[in-house]
Design brief:
Strand order of the largest sheet: 2-3-4-1-5-6-8
Strand content: 5-15%
Structural class: alpha/beta
Oligomer: single chain
Distance between the termini: 77 Å
Number of helices: 31
Largest sheet: 7 strands, mixed
Number of strands: 9
Helix content: 55-70%
Shape: elongated
Length: 720
């Protein structure tokens, strides 16, 4: 078996392998089956697609395996397919291991047939062979190897069987001379391939791939091959040959679509191979597989969606109920840590920077880590078992009406917990347009950080008996506005022909603990790395803008008043007033006064404008900012009765409605915005998101404000 023991540098032989296959064929489990392998995870250059590399030694060989994203076909349609296509065409590697699902061989060999045109050494790994045996599928893998001209090896990543044989086969193929696979097309296509290849041979044309494969690429209208040959002198004579070849092939296929022609050619070749090499044990017709029996319930047209909603409700209950336990410990720890560190710093400004800026900022991120971990575990389990594919199938009909993909539901649901992992989970969408549209809508799903603001305002303006219903209505309203916004974007910025929804239904499988652990650990570390560092910096920036310049006049005036205060309560009240006065003349206060005219039409004064600004750093900051601005104090919560009373006293109901609408719809926190920018692919998309969410929030807040004024008969808020 492979080991982690270093080999002698003198005798070391390096084999670099590209691991390629369709989704759900067990590539990741196959890597995990290589015991003691060293795993390195990063991103492919220039994109957000995850790149996994495994390093291990076997005998006197050193192996590097690059796990490429799963792809159904050798195309560059989605980001994942483009990464795989570009790597196989342009990067240096010695051979490919093509992993296929032995229980679904006909479908998986479609990609194999396309890879056989690449002039690369390849080993075929027939994974899940144990499952095939249990299902009565008998594959003559030796005869399969002969028919394809490839080495085919039976393996089971789950049972860790055939792994050593696979590695031995890789070494044998690596050391042997290259032999072209036996990819055979119909007579008409083979005739034209022969004519074009002969023409290239006569003109002594040579390239990294064989002239036969160049001929196949030309007949498939492969753009890169066309660009390479177009500027050469032989193109003048080659082009008429290609035109005649197209006409000849179209005569034998009832279509002029070259993609459809070759899809039929590959399918026919695979069917012939399957007929020769695969045998199925006779089973009673009435007997259903476990997958079919479970699907009868889980994707039932009536019961399917309620069952899914119940499962997601249970997941979120676990996320917030169980997550709240360590959150209290983490909150208490950072409170104690801040006090301990603060006590050692004599300078007030530096103490405030370290405690209120750095420690509070980092603590705000770490505080939500338990929720993130639980949510990731739940979603990873649902995906690993094969259930999430069914959910996307169930919801595609509903989401399609709004221009969204069925799989969009997964990141949208995640967005109710936190926008950062929601943006990351949008990678499951293969089509660029679907993924971008989903990214633009995620922010309309109210994340957990907005909940304290909602609780504060519903508690201030509604009786406890109806506050819960109002809170639920806010969440539903945000989701509905998001769906409507998706429809508008689909009709404008993302207009175009809808892509067909094709979703594979993999068999239900017990999830691999090692795979779940790796997935959750990787995503959690990414969350802490991307969000933690940025929120810490943003909190320091907000601290600076709200703390400077520090007015000595205000300090002197209030110091005198505090000294003359009648009792401790009066002194405490004066301290809060002093903080509010200092904040008003700070950089943040001056900005709020400057932009107040922009917010007056939607009923917001400069204080609410400042709260919205601090909310850009983190939505949790909005409550504490309002506490300072309305002379209540910094250490307040959304359930603080004094703050609730101050909100009810100083903010008109119509202004409160407009404020909640803006909170619900405007730009997510800066940490989430950075992740959005990275996932979307550039700063220009962040600018589009800023303009889109700002326009939507402002327009709907204006309408909500005016409508509330009209219904209540209250006067409009005047700037002061």
């Amino acid at each position: 078996m492979p080991s982690n023991t270093p080999v002698c540098p003198v005798t070391e032989k390096h084999i670099r392998i590209a691991l390629v296959g369709q989704p759900n064929v067990g590539k990741s489990m196959l890597i995990n089956a290589i015991s003691d392998a060293r795993l390195h995870v990063g991103n492919f250059s220039g994109v957000t697609v995850e790149k996994s590399e495994v390093f291990f030694d076997y005998k006197d060989f050193h192996f590097t395996i690059v796990d490429l994203p799963g792809t159904y076909a050798f195309t560059d349609y989605s980001i994942e397919e483009r990464v795989t296509h570009d790597f196989l065409c342009n990067e240096a590697y010695d051979l490919m291991i093509n992993v296929v699902d032995s229980t679904n061989l006909e479908k998986n060999l479609q990609l194999t047939a396309e890879l056989m045109t690449m002039n690369k050494k390849m080993v075929l790994a027939l994974n899940m062979s144990d499952e095939a045996d249990r299902e009565g599928i008998r594959i003559d893998y030796e005869y399969l190897s002969q028919l394809l001209g490839l080495t085919a090896v039976r393996v089971s990543a789950a049972a860790k069987s055939g792994i050593e044989t696979l590695i031995e086969s890789v070494i044998a193929v690596h050391e042997a001379p290259y032999q072209e696979p036996k990819l055979i097309f119909s007579e008409a296509v083979e005739e034209e391939i022969g004519l074009i290849a002969s023409y290239l041979d006569e003109h002594r044309f040579s390239a990294a791939i064989s002239n036969r494969n160049i001929a196949i690429n030309l007949l498939q209208n492969e753009k890169k091959t066309y660009r390479t040959l177009h500027d050469l002198p032989l193109w003048t004579e080659l082009q008429p040959l290609l035109i005649e070849a197209d006409k000849h092939i179209e005569m034998h296929h009832d279509t002029d679509d070259v993609k459809e022609v070759f899809a039929e050619e590959y399918a026919a070749f695979i069917r012939g191979v399957i007929t020769e090499t695969v045998r199925y044990t006779e089973q009673p017709v009435e007997k259903k597989s476990l997958t079919e029996r479970v699907d009868d319930l889980l994707i039932h047209p009536v019961l399917g969606i309620p069952i899914f909603l119940f499962l997601m409700w249970g997941l979120f209950q676990l996320t917030f109920e169980i997550g709240n336990i360590p959150m209290e410990w983490i909150d208490a720890f950072f409170g104690w840590f801040g006090e301990t560190v603060g006590a050692t710093i004599p300078n007030a400004d530096i103490r405030s920077l370290v405690v209120d800026g750095v420690i509070a900022g980092v603590g705000a991120v770490v505080l939500f880590t338990p929720n993130i971990i639980i949510l990731f575990i739940g979603i990873a389990l649902l995906e690993a078992t094969g259930y999430m594919s069914r959910v996307a199938f169930l919801l595609d009909g509903i989401f399609h009406k709004f221009g969204l993909h069925g799989q969009s539901f997964i990141p949208l649901v995640t967005g109710f917990g936190c926008s950062i992992p929601a943006y990351m989970s949008a990678r499951i969408l293969k089509n660029d347009s679907d993924r971008l549209l989903t990214l633009f809508i995620i922010g309309f799903m109210s994340c957990g950080a907005r909940l304290p603001v909602y609780v504060l305002f519903t508690g201030a303006f509604f009786a406890p008996s109806v506050a819960g219903n109002v809170l639920f209505a806010i969440y539903i309203a945000g989701a509905l506005i998001g769906l409507i916004a998706a429809k508008i974007l689909k009709m404008t910025a993302f207009r175009g022909q809808d892509e067909p929804f094709v979703m594979e239904m993999p068999k239900y499988r017990l999830p691999s603990v090692k795979l779940i652990w790796h997935t959750v650990l990787t995503k959690t570390l990414m969350y802490l790395k991307k969000a933690g560092t940025f929120i810490a910096g943003a909190s320091m920036l907000v601290w600076f803008l709200s703390s400077y310049p520090h007015s000595r006049e205000i300090e002197a005036v209030y110091s005198a008043k505090i000294e003359q205060a009648a009792d401790e309560h009066a002194a405490s009240h004066l301290i809060v007033e002093k903080d509010a006065a200092q904040l008003e003349q700070s950089y943040l206060g001056r900005i709020g006064k400057t932009i107040e005219p922009l917010f007056t039409p939607i009923g917001l004064d400069w204080k609410m404008a400042i709260a919205l600004q601090t909310g850009l750093a983190a939505k949790e900051v909005v409550v504490s900012t309002l506490g300072v601005l309305y002379a209540v104090g910094e250490g307040v919560t959304e359930t603080d009765k004094t703050l609730i009373s101050a909100i009810r006293t100083h903010i008109p109901f119509a202004s409160a409605v407009a404020f909640i609408v803006v909170i619900m719809l405007y730009l997510p926190c800066l940490a989430a915005s950075v992740v959005f920018t990275r996932e979307a692919g550039g700063i220009k998309y962040f600018i589009y998101l800023f303009l889109f969410t700002t326009a939507t929030a402002y327009t709907l807040a204006f309408l909500a404000y005016r409508l509330t004024l009209m219904l209540t008969g209250a006067p409009a808020l005047l700037p002061h």
